[in-house]
Design goal:
It is a single chain. The chain is α/β, with parallel strands linked by helices and 278 residues long. It folds into two domains: 136 residues; 114 residues, no CATH class. The strands form four sheets. The chain has a five-stranded mixed sheet with strand order 2-1-3-4-10, sandwiched between helices. A three-stranded parallel sheet has the order 5-8-9. A hairpin with a 6-residue loop joins strand 11 and strand 12. The longest helix is centred in the N-terminal third of the chain and has 14 residues.
């Protein structure tokens, strides 16, 4: 099979690692990490990429996204089937399954998750990353930003600025998701610096590419309905508001969904859909 994969840049390293071992021929398109700050913008961009895929160039389009702040809701399959992992955010994709994410969430609900993509991409697809206006740095956030740069260096300052929102108080530890291929990137020191600044404990958790690999290597296009939603041409994605996370909705308004397992309510916090979808 020929698969067009449209994914968030945060999954760059992990996706390429999985694609190198995929059963099928894979063409990857990466979109800027910050797109899902605005779900409408992200949805339009995703739809444009999906619409560009044709039956002459691929057999299916696979999204490297979770529900991601409802950015997927309304995205419609084009000329070929659209395949979407049943996940609320990218952390499920990095941990290998909803079940594992749920278990780790229940063990330590105050965990903020990091990965290579969250740590190293100050610039994504040529678009500069900068503190948001509501980053908590105050009205004159540029002056505070300069102080952070002077104290911690620009790399760490960018992340510290992003973590200064009020929701940070819900977290008690930062967990770095590790893979063998990221050991030389210096991720640990940067995440430890963030955790020290926030007063969080630092832990490391082994990553798992099982879900990404399953999406790229489904035999004869038979994606496991427990882990993936397959959207037929003309149907659209919608939120199912249950353990299945996603459903396919026909133009007439009907829907099709399968069951699944429970999940954490957000990217490490019970208080939000996905706090790191920033």
């Amino acid at each position: 099979m020929r698969l067009n994969v449209i994914a968030c840049d945060v999954l760059r390293r992990e996706l390429y690692e999985a694609a190198a071992r995929a059963r099928h021929a894979v063409e990857v398109t990466l979109l800027p990490q910050g797109l899902h700050d605005n779900s409408d913008t992200c949805r339009r961009r995703l739809q444009a990429e999906v619409d560009a895929a044709s039956a002459e160039t691929c057999d299916a389009v696979l999204l490297g996204y979770g529900l991601c702040n409802n950015s997927l809701v309304g995205v419609r399959a084009g000329a070929v089937p659209l395949v979407v992992p049943r996940a609320h955010d990218c952390i499920t994709l990095l941990l290998g399954s909803r079940e594992r994410y749920q278990r780790l969430f229940e063990e330590a609900p105050g965990t903020y998750w990091f990965s290579s993509g969250w740590v190293e991409h100050q610039e994504t697809s040529g678009e500069p990353f900068a503190p948001r206006p509501n980053s908590g740095l105050g009205p004159d956030y540029r002056a505070d930003w300069d102080d952070l740069v002077a104290k911690y260096g620009e790399d760490n300052a960018r992340y510290l600025a992003d973590f200064m929102d009020g929701w940070e108080a819900e977290y008690t530890r930062g967990a770095l998701i590790r893979f063998p291929f990221d050991r030389a990137l210096g991720l640990e020191a940067r995440v430890r610096a963030i955790c020290r600044e926030k007063g969080w404990d630092y832990v490391e958790v082994d990553g798992d590419l099982a879900l990404l690999e399953a999406g790229l290597s489904a035999p004869d296009g038979g994606w496991d309905a427990e882990r993936f939603l397959t959207v037929a041409p003309g149907q659209a994605v919608r939120a199912s508001f249950d353990e299945a996370i996603l459903a396919a909705e026909s133009p007439a308004g009907g829907s099709r969904r399968t069951g699944g397992s429970p999940r954490p309510s957000g990217r490490g916090s019970v208080a939000a859909e996905s706090e790191n979808d920033r």
